Amino acid sequence: MDTTIAPTPAPSAAPPQKEVIISAKDVVVAFGEKRILNGLSLDIYRGEILGFIGPSGAGKSVLTRTILGLNKKQSGTINVFGHDVDSLNEVQHRAIERRWGVLFQQGALFSSLNCRQNVQVPMREYLKLSQKLMDELAAMKFEMVGLTPDVGDKLPSELSGGMIKRVALARALALDPDILFLDEPTSGLDPIGAGDFDDLIATLQKTLGLTVFMVTHDLGSLYSVCDRIAALGQGKVVEQGTIKTMLASEQPWVKSYFHGKRAEAMNAAV
């Protein structure tokens, strides 16, 4: 009998662990008697662009607003940077807030402020800087989003829809955030403008190392910039994964979404 002991193979390198930067567990949010989020759980990983999709009125934006503390949840936990947001005191919560930036669906610029002043709002709220330094920082943020500094003198009412989005993005970047929340960032833009905005988000994500949570219904964005996609249905995440995972899904709404007439041309290119 051969008693030779075969050498133990060298262990293969373990795959790198993804760092969870936001974790929602069993989150319930209700307005009156209607539950919008019904035990939703979702992890968001550092450095990814996550597209969050779902039927109209399903509660996509509700999750963003709940993470930000703008909606009250009835149960469940939300951890950001490893901290349970419910356990934070006011000072700690403000420190967390400085690390995220938000672009709301319609830009949500203050109509009475010019664009420079809009971008400086987070600086005034969280930092103690001279006006000269804030002006210089605002000019830098305009350049980052593809706008010239003279835009700062304009009121939001003087801007096109695409420029409003970019000014709102500049404001979201004002404090050099780690996380960027985007609520329907290409809504209302023509296909060329939407494509340019997607390219801008991808460039910023790579150069700044951002984590991006993007609520969207735009198939172009999902195909071109999202590393991963999560689909919301009946208050929970019903499917998540890469675009290929979504294309192969048998979940009824996801299948309809990615195999409908509007998706046919894009599917053919995958």
Mean pLDDT: 88
- How many extended strands? 10
Major β-sheet profile = 6 strands, mixed
Q: Flag low-confidence runs.
A: 1-15
Intertermini distance = 56 Å
**Count of helices?**
10
| Proportion of beta-strand residues | 15-25%
> How do the SSEs run, as a string of H and E?
EEEHEEHEHHHEHEHEEHHH
Structural class: alpha/beta
Read across the widest sheet, the strand sequence of neighbours is 6-7-8-3-9-10
Radius of gyration: 21 Å
Shape: globular
Residue share in helix: 25-40%
What can you see in these coordinates?
A hairpin with a 2-residue loop joins strand 1 (20-31) and strand 2 (34-45). The strands form two sheets. Strands 6-7-8-3-9-10 form a six-stranded mixed β-sheet. Strands 2-1-4-5 form a four-stranded antiparallel β-sheet, covered by helices on one side. 36% of the residues lie in helices and 23% in strands. Helix 3 packs across helix 4. The chain has ten helices and ten strands. The model is unreliable at 1-15 (pLDDT under 50). The protein is an alpha/beta fold. It has helices spanning 60-67, 90-97, 115-126, 131-144, 161-172, 191-208, 219-224, 243-248, 252-258, 264-269, and strands spanning 20-31, 34-45, 49-53, 75-80, 83-84, 100-103, 179-183, 211-215, 228-233, 236-241.
